[in-house]
């Protein structure tokens, strides 16, 4: 199974890297948002917050690639005519889809690299991390938890015909309620409980604290905990999707 | 009604309705309204955190810019989808007035863009305490209308390029996001580096947004007349360019028998 997961992850990572759309949302879009944030922070009262902005814009890119990649994961297999083959394969459907959703989050790593590089070269963002080793741990933990959240998205969105358009609706709200660029303390109080069940909140906390100073382990711990919950939920939802598709003979119907 | 007018109105309406072969009207409305709403909220809260500008700066900038969702994406689909869906050849085989075909596609998206911007301003009024003096609203409506028309002209230009380019939706997405950066939506154009400011001043939206902000601050339409005229002139240049490309690619497509090839 480890081989299936590793090869599947690598295959999908290469595949997504070749897509212009994913280059746009995982590299160009984060750079544009980071640049806007850099200018806003510079001309505002937070000229020292450029690393904060670079990290936030980078994680925004990870969320976007997960949302669009995982949200449409099953639908894409359907359009390409590979869904029946995947479902009929001896390996469990879950273990075939998991590397795909994790790879959609993984290409979001391009976002972090791109925004940090862009910030360093063009805005002089200081790349001095308070806890570099914990930063190196927090990042994969964040990506993995988002990939597992992607499993839930994939198995839920496939039930809705308009899921690709629905994905557009979820980009800004999650950026906002998970505090990727705007601190949660600025938002209405009812937003905070929503943020607790979303992995990007904790991933951002872990990554930001590793870079700027602060407690890192609680964020990483919550990513692992939420990742486990997403995996269990995603497994149930995938089974449900497979059962319904077999019962109704709708596997290849869009 | 003359044939050209019929093509302009009926053709434009049918083209707009063709959007709903891939998205349901309900989801279209939700996307067109939901996404702009959260964009306005996101940048206004980010602006509060960054400091330096008032809420109104971000509200007006984003409420005007969100009209580009219809103006850019809609217009690109209105023109380029003809090629993608295989209806370009039959369309261009007709003797219909080309200007009417082309301009008719823009009208629904102008109305659509205005509706999106209006919803953006209303949402800001309901959620962010945006309360301009009611006396400025007619002038604001004029400025926003001209800006939306101008922005739709840019969408038409990209759509025309879609008659030749392989992946025009990549360009549409990129332009939409770049407008957030270059057009003074969230950062005053004068705070941008010189070359970015120069680019921003040469594309639709920038002058319209500045004019809209000044109107909200209490200036009259006459006082921002220069900005509004510049915005309209830029839109006209893009519209002429878009139509020229449309005709060029039609002629080239006929000559090379490549209208619908990729």
What does this structure look like?
- The complex is a heterodimer of chains A (254) and B (262).
- Chain A is mainly alpha-helical.
- Chain A is 78% helix and 0% strand.
- Chain A contains 12 helices and no strands.
- In chain B, helix 1 packs across helix 6 (98-127) and helix 3 (55-65) runs antiparallel to helix 6.
- The two termini of chain B are 37 Å apart.
- Chain B has helices spanning 3-18, 25-50, 55-65, 68-84, 88-93, 98-127, 137-161, 168-182, 194-201, 206-216, 225-256.
- Chain B is 75% helix and 0% strand.
- The A-B interface holds A 20-21, 24, 28-29, 32-33, 35-37, 39-46, 49, 161-162, 165-166, 168-169, 171-173, 175-176, 181-183, 186-187 and B 23-24, 27-28, 30-31, 34-35, 38-39, 41-42, 45-53, 167, 170, 173-174, 177-178, 180-181, 186-188, 191-192.
Give a brief description.
Helix content of chain A is 78%, strand content 0%. With 254 residues, chain A is mainly alpha-helical.
Helix/strand layout:
The complex is a heterodimer of chains A (254) and B (262).
Chain A: H1 2-17, H2 20-43, H3 50-71, H4 73-80, H5 83-88, H6 93-106, H7 109-123, H8 132-157, H9 163-177, H10 191-196, H11 199-212, H12 217-248
Helix pairs in contact in A: 1-6, 2-3, 2-7, 3-6, 3-7, 3-8, 3-9, 3-11, 6-8, 8-11, 8-12, 11-12
Chain B: H1 3-18, H2 25-50, H3 55-65, H4 68-84, H5 88-93, H6 98-127, H7 137-161, H8 168-182, H9 194-201, H10 206-216, H11 225-256
Helix percent of chain A reads over 70%
- Helical amount among residues of chain B, as a percent range? over 70%
Parts with pLDDT < 50 across at least 5 consecutive residues of chain B: none
What summary fits the major beta sheet of chain B? none
Shape of chain B: globular
From the alpha carbons, calculate the radius of gyration of chain A and give it in angstroms: 18 Å
Helix count from the secondary structure assignment of chain B: 11
Main interface pair?
A: A-B, 35 and 34 residues
| Total beta-strand segments of chain A | 0
């Amino acid at each position: 199974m480890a081989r299936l997961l590793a090869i599947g992850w690598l295959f999908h990572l290469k595949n997504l890297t070749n897509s212009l759309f994913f280059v746009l949302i995982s590299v160009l879009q984060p750079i544009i948002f980071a640049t806007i944030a850099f200018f806003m922070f510079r001309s505002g009262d937070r000229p020292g917050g450029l690393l904060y902005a670079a990290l936030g814009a980078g994680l925004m890119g990870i969320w976007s690639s997960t949302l669009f990649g995982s949200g449409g994961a099953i639908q894409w297999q359907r359009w390409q005519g590979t869904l029946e083959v995947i479902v009929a394969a001896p390996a469990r459907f879950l273990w075939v889809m998991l590397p795909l959703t994790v790879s959609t989050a993984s290409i979001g790593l391009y976002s972090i690299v791109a925004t940090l590089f862009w910030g360093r070269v063009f805005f002089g963002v200081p790349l001095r991390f308070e806890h570099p080793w914990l930063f190196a741990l927090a990042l994969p933990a964040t990506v993995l938890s988002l990939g597992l959240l992607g499993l839930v998205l994939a198995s839920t969105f496939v039930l809705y015909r308009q899921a690709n358009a629905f994905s557009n609706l979820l980009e800004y709200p999650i950026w906002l309620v998970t505090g990727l660029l705007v601190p949660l303390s600025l938002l209405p109080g009812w937003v905070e409980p929503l943020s607790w069940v979303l992995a990007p909140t904790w991933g951002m906390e872990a990554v930001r604290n590793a870079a700027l100073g602060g407690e890192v382990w609680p964020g990483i711990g919550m990513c692992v905990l939420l990742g486990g919950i997403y995996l269990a939920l995603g497994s149930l939802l995938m089974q449900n999707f497979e059962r319904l598709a077999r019962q109704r003979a709708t596997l290849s119907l869009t | 009604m003359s044939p050209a007018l019929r093509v302009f109105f009926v053709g434009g309406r049918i083209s707009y309705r063709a959007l709903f072969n891939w998205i349901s009207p309900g989801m279209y409305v939700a996307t067109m309204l939901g996404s702009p709403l959260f964009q306005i909220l996101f940048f206004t809260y980010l602006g509060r955190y960054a400091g330096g500008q008032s809420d109104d700066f971000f509200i007006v900038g984003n409420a005007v810019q969100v009209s580009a969702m219809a103006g850019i994406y809609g217009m690109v689909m209105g023109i380029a989808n003809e090629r993608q869906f295989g209806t370009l050849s039959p369309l261009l085989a007709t003797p219909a007035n080309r200007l009417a075909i082309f301009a008719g596609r823009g009208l629904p998206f102008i109305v659509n863009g205005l509706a999106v911007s209006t919803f953006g301003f209303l949402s800001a009024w309901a959620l962010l305490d945006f309360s301009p003096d009611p006396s400025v609203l007619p002038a604001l409506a004029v400025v926003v209308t001209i800006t939306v028309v101008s922005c739709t002209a840019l969408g038409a230009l990209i759509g025309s390029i879609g008659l030749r380019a392989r992946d025009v939706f990549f360009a549409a997405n990129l332009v939409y996001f770049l407008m957030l950066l270059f057009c003074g939506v969230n950062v005053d154009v004068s705070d941008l580096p010189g070359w970015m400011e120069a680019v921003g001043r040469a594309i639709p939206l920038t002058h319209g947004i500045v004019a809209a902000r000044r109107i909200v601050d209490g200036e009259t339409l006459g006082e921002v007349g220069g900005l509004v005229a510049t915005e309209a002139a830029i839109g006209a240049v893009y519209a002429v360019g878009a139509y020229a490309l449309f005709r060029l690619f039609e002629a080239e497509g006929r000559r090379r028998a490549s209208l619908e090839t990729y």
